Write a sequence for this structure.
């Protein structure tokens, strides 16, 4: 039971991370395509400025919880995905530094350099998280003793790459919607238009991915066993359609919330399909690591559950306060139309 | 080189670099909080400008500290998977608690502080920097509890082929952990004090904004003095703990080969590990080592020869790092006392100001050597007495680690140069830019 609770919390942490940092990853990816001048560029940085650091901690916590609750999974997963993970880490390093340092350089060359770093630092993780998670759904080449038998390139299979494209598009739409909410003027308009266009690409890739998931992975087994779980992918479809509907109606906050629900349900769709597996072996299912054969002792799980139940709600409360504090105030519009 | 050596080098490089930025975060956050509190209490705008000026430097430093911290957390899994699997039940939970309790608070409120100068009342704004200071120090507490568990593991049982948690209370309350915490945090405070004093000294030498930098200096010198005293007293006790609980580390840092009763303390010692002896032993104070370690002139100090060569840490590097750290600690205490005594006329003492300016790097050196002693002195163990470092490394290809090690060195060198260039150019500007900023009504310290 404890193991199942922690499995659920593990999935939820990833979902929250993708929802919150997702808009940063998306905005960073889109930045080169929506900016025209220095004011736009500042708008990009300012739309993420007060939030990105707090968002990123959800990733650290997801990593920390994997370590604490499922140490064997943490050990095998992180060492197996060595190169991919370190690439993600280097990307996150340069994006954080770009966020904090760009404004401190007055030369245009340096600013351009940091803009490039911001793009690499957000596009890289968006793509690589997608590739990594698609491979986790599919299973990776883990042998009996938890040693990875593949390379970085074994991850770049068609299904993995499709996952990468899917994640980039999900975050791009999510980021465009955030930008539509948090910027103004031309930048806002361009972000709004881009959100609408990208939605179609996202819808196509999402459907393809959902279909390809059937032959490529065993995710649907759980759903066929307990059809009530199909409510999760159904909710994802509704949320995706809702996003479109609200984009059309120019209701940007509602569109962003729909997109957030979509990200949460897509993550939960994958995680629920994997249950109880955390790291599937594509060599032999018997080598897979799951919530039961890789978990910590019951004492650790209990203590950590208490810590999570006390502190995560507190974190959520103050992070909501911060989002409200820095929410862009609507500009005073004197005349409309 | 094999995967073990490469992984050790990579972890060393990542930790070394990370710890160039952490101590200043620990101490400067508290100094900023004190400055802002002084502003709230007195209404004197000079204090607010102090918080803003030093705060800009703080933010540059903080950014590098944060981004290099994540790689450390993930490297346990990527490079030390056997370790993670074996001790994750304990070590992993300590890291997860650190993230939940401290990282969120720190990372969320640093942004509120940086962007919130106008959105919050002065009081509320001062609260946010206190929260940042609290969180960064809390984060130090948890990671040092985790490190202390590697130095002196308690509260666990070996079960199911791994170390499992038996008592979190034992781990959190063990004296070794609290010695390490006081020791490391004090070191951060000393470093921050000397950092602020050094940069203030640079401006005072130029007679630049004398009132502003004198106020900064006076605050920093009291801070540095208090914690230099704490460090020397506590460092002595810390040494006693090491002698008791990590005899191999103690023997290596003092370069004691032969188990001796009433062991002398040598002022100068040059180890010769190949011949299991010391090349030079000079200035013996009879019985002093026994006294310092065990508060008993006749106590027995274990020698390295009592341990098989494979159980001994590298001796020369342990001895050298220990001596560098100790010498600098006394230097900090003496300079802080002099600075404190002369604090009211400091701007008229160019020689002293120069001393403080050139002292800026010294606490950095002391901190890094301190960690070298702590970590290298623990070898060949990753968890003292429980798991050898050689058994902790991931079963991965050496070529992968070689590539990432090169990448770490290149990226970190670049980031280090950029960060210190920015810190120096910010420090040189002085507070003039702050007053202009506040008057023009420009809001954010951030990106505006």
């Amino acid at each position: 039971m404890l193991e199942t609770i922690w499995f659920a919390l593990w999935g939820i942490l990833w979902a929250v991370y993708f929802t919150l940092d997702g808009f940063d990853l998306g905005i960073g990816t889109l930045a080169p395509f929506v900016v025209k001048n220095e004011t736009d560029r500042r708008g990009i940085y300012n739309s993420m400025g007060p939030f990105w650091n707090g968002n990123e901690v959800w990733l650290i916590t997801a990593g920390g919880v994997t370590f604490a609750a499922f140490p064997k999974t943490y050990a095998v997963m992180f060492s197996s995905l060595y190169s991919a993970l370190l690439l993600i880490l280097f990307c996150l390093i340069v994006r954080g530094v770009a966020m904090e340092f760009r404004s401190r350089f007055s030369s245009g060359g340096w600013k351009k350099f940091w803009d490039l770093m911001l793009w690499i630092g957000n596009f890289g993780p968006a793509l690589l998280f997608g590739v990594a998670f698609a491979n986790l759904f599919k299973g990776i080449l883990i042998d009996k003793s938890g040693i990875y038998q593949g390379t970085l390139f074994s991850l770049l299979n068609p299904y993995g790459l499709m996952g990468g494209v899917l994640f980039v598009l999900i975050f791009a739409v999510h980021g465009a919607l955030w930008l539509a909410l948090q910027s103004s003027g031309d930048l806002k308009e361009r972000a709004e238009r881009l959100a609408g266009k990208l939605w179609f690409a996202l819808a196509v890739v999402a459907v393809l991915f959902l279909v390809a998931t059937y032959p490529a992975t065993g995710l649907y087994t759980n759903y066929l066993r307990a059809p009530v779980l199909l409510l999760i992918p159904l909710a994802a479809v509704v949320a995706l359609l809702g996003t479109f509907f609200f984009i059309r109606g120019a209701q940007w906050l509602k569109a962003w919330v729909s997109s957030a629900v979509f990200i949460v349900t897509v993550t939960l769709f994958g995680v629920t399909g994997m249950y109880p597996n955390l790291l599937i072996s594509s060599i032999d299912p018997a080598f897979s690591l799951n919530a039961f054969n890789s978990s910590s002792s019951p004492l650790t799980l209990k203590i950590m559950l208490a810590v999570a139940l006390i502190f995560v709600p507190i974190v959520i409360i103050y992070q909501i306060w911060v989002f409200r504090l820095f929410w862009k105030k609507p500009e005073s519009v004197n005349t409309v139309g | 080189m094999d995967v073990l050596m490469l992984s050790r080098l990579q972890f060393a490089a990542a930790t070394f670099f990370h710890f160039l930025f952490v101590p200043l975060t620990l101490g400067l956050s508290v100094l900023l909080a004190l400055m802002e509190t002084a502003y709230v209490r007195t209404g004197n705008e000079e204090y607010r400008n102090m918080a803003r000026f030093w705060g800009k430097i703080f933010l540059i430093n903080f950014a590098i500290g944060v981004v290099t911290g994540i790689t450390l957390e993930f490297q346990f899994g990527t490079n030390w998977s056997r370790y993670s699997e074996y001790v994750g039940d304990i070590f992993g939970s300590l890291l997860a608690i650190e993230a939940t309790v401290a990282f969120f608070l720190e990372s969320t409120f640093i942004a509120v502080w940086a962007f919130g100068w106008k959105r919050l009342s002065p009081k509320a704004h001062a609260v946010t920097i206190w929260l940042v200071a609290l969180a960064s120090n809390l984060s130090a507490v948890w990671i040092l509890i985790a490190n202390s568990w590697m130095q002196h593991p308690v509260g666990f049982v070996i079960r199911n082929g791994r170390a499992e948690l038996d008592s979190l209370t034992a781990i959190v309350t063990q004296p070794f952990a609290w010695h390490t915490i006081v020791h490391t945090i004090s070191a951060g405070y000393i470093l921050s004090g000397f950092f602020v004093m050094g940069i203030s000294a640079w401006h005072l030498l130029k007679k630049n904004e004398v009132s502003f930098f004198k106020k900064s200096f006076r605050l920093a010198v009291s801070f540095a003095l208090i914690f230099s005293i704490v460090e020397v007293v506590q460092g002595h006790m810390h040494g006693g703990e090491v002698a008791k609980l990590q005899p191999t580390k103690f023997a290596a840092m003092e370069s004691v080969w032969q188990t001796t009763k009433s062991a002398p303390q040598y002022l100068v010692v040059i180890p010769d590990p190949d011949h299991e002896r010391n090349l030079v032993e000079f200035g013996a104070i009879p019985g002093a080592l026994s006294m310092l370690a065990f508060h008993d002139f006749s106590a027995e100090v274990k020698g390295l020869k009592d341990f098989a060569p494979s159980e001994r840490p590298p001796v020369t590097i342990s001895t050298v790092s220990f001596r560098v750290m100790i010498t600098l600690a006394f230097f900090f205490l003496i300079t802080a006392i002099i600075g404190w005594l002369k604090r009211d006329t400091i701007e008229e003492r160019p020689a002293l100001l120069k001393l403080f300016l050139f002292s800026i790097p010294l606490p950095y050196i002391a901190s890094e050597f301190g960690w070298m002693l702590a970590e290298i002195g623990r070898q060949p163990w990753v968890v003292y007495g429980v798991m050898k470092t050689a058994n902790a490394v991931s079963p991965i290809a050496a070529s992968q680690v070689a590539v990432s090690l090169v990448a770490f060195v290149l990226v970190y060198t670049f980031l280090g140069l950029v960060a210190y260039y920015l810190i120096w150019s910010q420090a040189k500007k002085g507070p003039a830019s702050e007053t202009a900023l506040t008057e023009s009504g420009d809001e954010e310290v951030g990106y505006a």
In short: The beta strands of chain A are 277-279, 289-290. The two ends of chain A are 58 Å apart (CA to CA). Chain A is about 75% helix and 0% strand. Chain A touches chain B through 65 residues (CB under 8 Å).
